[in-house]
Amino acid sequence: MPDAARKHSRPVKAGVITIGGGAPVSVQSMCTTATRDVETTLAQIWELSCAGCELVRLAVPDQESISALKDIVAKSPLPVVADIHFDCRLAIAAIRAGVHKIRINPGNMKDPQGLRQIAREAKERGIPIRVGVNAGSLDRKQMDLSGGVTAEMLARYALDACRQLEALDFYDIVLSAKASSPLLMIETYRLLSKKSPYPLHLGVTEAGTPAQGVIRSAVGIGTLLAEGIGDTIRVSLTADPVEEVHAAYSILATLSLRQRGAVLISCPTCGRTEVPLMEIAEKVERRLRSIDLPLRVAVMGCVVNGPGEAREADVGIAGGRDSFVLFRKGEIVRKVGAEQAFEVLMAEIDRLLEENKSGD
Ligand code: SF4
User: Fold this and answer.
1) CA separation, residue 186 to residues 152, 160, 234, 235, 277 (Å)
2) Pocket of ligand 1 (CB under 6 A)
């Protein structure tokens, strides 16, 4: 999608990352480690960073986490976002610990003086606040009266939460209003994009395990991004958070918004396939994860669509009878036996990477 088609929101900065204002859609994730465990948390942040994560969020449920936060922020390769609920004192302490952004839900912080101080200290340090509301945090009574959560209700709740900060003269806001239903979150964010100037953090919350969660997130987040809505994304999965980052880049690459690393084009196989394509495609996909260069790699089953896709790719293989033809940049390189195809393809990719490094 051309960048100009994206809605330009009011930009904010979280460390080195700009969110909104037409900046590339950034990728976030959240550590699953206990924040008080500095070493394990930093190890996970490094893994996320290597996978391409650009902002990392940490749960800050108690004072012990605050003590660890200072150390983590000092050593983290990524800007750190502190996730705080209910307790204004923890938010203030996290800001003082040097985090690059905080995420709160003003609706569940019942101390007006505390909220005033959060806004003042965040402003003094130049850090943004994500107003993060969830369908699950809406008032029960209100929901019962309306027969459940509606997009209008969730959007109103999110905008009211922003107004609480605006009343304190604070505007460096990122806004999120997540729901576990992709349809509900799509409608809610559509409303917010019309009514709010703030950058939008997109996500389908409690999306589930990767098998289900990736699809739900791709539908929810992808639909909005395709409409030019959204400035930063988090795919929430019940899995290693590195999987969230891979899924987020797959969504962005599918919409031609950003590409990090290699993209695999592979056919579903059918009765014409005479090579072990599924096995090879899975192995190739695993290996491509460690490649940063934006490559297009094709692994195709037969002569029907194989040569066409393989020619279009930077490197590709198209199957025949127990063999493959190797393509590189649209040209046939050679024919290889099915058993050697994986190694030969990876060697060709390695050569391409080497040449790219040396500037050939
Ligand atoms: S490329 Fe060939 S093997 Fe693959 S799905 Fe198409 S027809 Fe079947």
Assistant:
1) 11, 19, 15, 14, 36
2) 267-270, 272-273, 300-302, 304-306
